[in-house]
Amino acid sequence: MSFSNAKVLSSEPLANSEAVWTKLVKITYDDCKAKTRSWESAERTTRPKNGDIDGVGIVAILEKPTGPEIVLQRQYRAPIDKICIEAPAGLVDEGETTEEAAIRELKEETGYVGKVSETSPMMFNDPGFCNTNLRMVHVTVDMSLPENQNLKPELEEDEFIEVFYVPLTDLYAECKKLEAEGYAIDARVGTFAEGIEVAKQFKL
Amino acid sequence: MSFSNAKVLSSEPLANSEAVWTKLVKITYDDCKAKTRSWESAERTTRPKNGDIDGVGIVAILEKPTGPEIVLQRQYRAPIDKICIEAPAGLVDEGETTEEAAIRELKEETGYVGKVSETSPMMFNDPGFCNTNLRMVHVTVDMSLPENQNLKPELEEDEFIEVFYVPLTDLYAECKKLEAEGYAIDARVGTFAEGIEVAKQFKL
User: Fold this and answer.
1) pLDDT tens digits, B172-187
2) Of A15, B8, B28, B105, whose CB has the highest number of CB atoms within 10 Å?
3) pLDDT tens digits, residue range A116-159?
4) Which residue of A has its CA nearest to B34?
5) Same domain, A29 and A114
């Protein structure tokens, strides 16, 4: 396996009737003046029936003697034809809580066993364009636990994920460096990094 | 105008041939094992021909004696049928730089005239689902300038945006409060707030 194999070959219009994971909808709505208008939106078809979110992202923090580090991953993403820098993440399975999905996905994708310290509000990725949403779950990883010594990620046969770590305090500078190297930055990682940088700038 | 007027009336499947702003595509790609696969993706049709980003978001900071505050807005979003808490933002016009778009959109949506202090890497909103992307531009607003005294937003006839301000240091707590009040949180605002909170937590 190698990222150098991954590339888009072609792209063609997809009809809703053939789409499995996604759909395009035309919404008829009343605006703030009670005037009836329409808006185009893209949706996932996979949101659990009794759930309100599509996915979960994980802010996994390794508490190291040298300072806290965040767990990130490199993953090829066909929609953008680039290797993207992302937080561990996944869709929420039917019947699963947000926190259970976070702990499961972190273990599957990185091998780490962590403890939930915080769950974010429900957040919408691009609400003028689509309805996809997620919660970010903050997970602290105790590096002294035996289960965190010899990591055994359990990736699907078709998943190819490279895990790496960045000191939290360097995250924004690292995002800029990774962009210069040709990687794409996931907005959930990038804006998180901007928050850290602005907090440092204003000494919050 | 009132947010209480705004609501979704109906939603129906939309064919690519009738869509103006969006499209659904089926991507054929080689994965990391050079195995040919397909992936479904949603796209905007509006990205400028010679540009590489769809939109720009603005981290506008008011430097007040009581501490820095971020400019946010409430806007009804039909794709999620909620009033969303967002940073000022907009699409980039043909021939415009990212920074020009940021300064223009901030003035149009809030009235503030600001100075660019930072431009983020290109960031992808939800790269497993769609190709939409943006850069965040950080803008500092000098509150002593005459042009920032009597704000005159220039909203389109069909735009309804309420502007408000939050002390940067309170942003994450405020997002949770706003969620409890029924607002949706844009992920670019929410993860930025998480970054601030984590920086405070670890005293970065």
Assistant:
1) 999 999 999 999 999 9
2) B105
3) 999 999 999 999 999 999 999 999 999 999 999 989 888 888 88
4) A5
5) no
Domain membership of residue A6 (yes or no) is no
A9 → closest Cβ in B30, B129, B158: B30
Q: Is A37 helix (H, G, I), strand (E, B) or coil?
A: strand
Domain presence at residue B5: no
Cβ distance of B80 and A9 shorter than 8 Å: no
- Residue B177 and residue B117 share a domain: yes
Tell me how many residue pairs between chain A and chain B have CB atoms under 8 A apart. Answer: 352
Q: Dig out the tokens for A61 from the structure.
A: 């923090």
Taking an 8 Å cut-off on Cβ atoms, the answer to whether A123 and B3 are in contact is no
Q: How far apart are CA A135 and CA A51, in angstroms?
A: 12
- As a whole number, mean pLDDT of residues A180-204 equals 98
Run of H or E residues at A164? strand A161-167
Q: B134 contacts in A (CB within 8 Å)?
A: 187
Query: Pick from A152, A161, A111: which is nearest to A6 by CA?
Result: A161
Residues of A in contact with B6 (CB under 8 A): 29-32
Read off the pLDDT of each residue in A167-184 and give the average, rounded to a whole number: 98
Preferred mutation among A160, A194, A200, A201 to probe B, highest tally of B CBs within 10 A: A194
Q: Which of A5, A82, A192 to mutate to test the interface with B (most CBs of B within 10 A)?
A: A192
Q: Quickly count: other Cβ atoms within 10 Å of residue B59's Cβ.
A: 25
- The strand pair at A133-141 and A55-64 is best described as parallel
Count how many domains chain A has. Answer: 2
What ipTM was reported for this prediction? 0.97
Classify B94 as helix, strand or coil. coil
Per the CB < 8 Å rule, is A129 touching B22?
yes
With CB atoms and an 8 Å threshold, state whether A81 touches B29: yes
Residue B25 lies in domain: 13-45
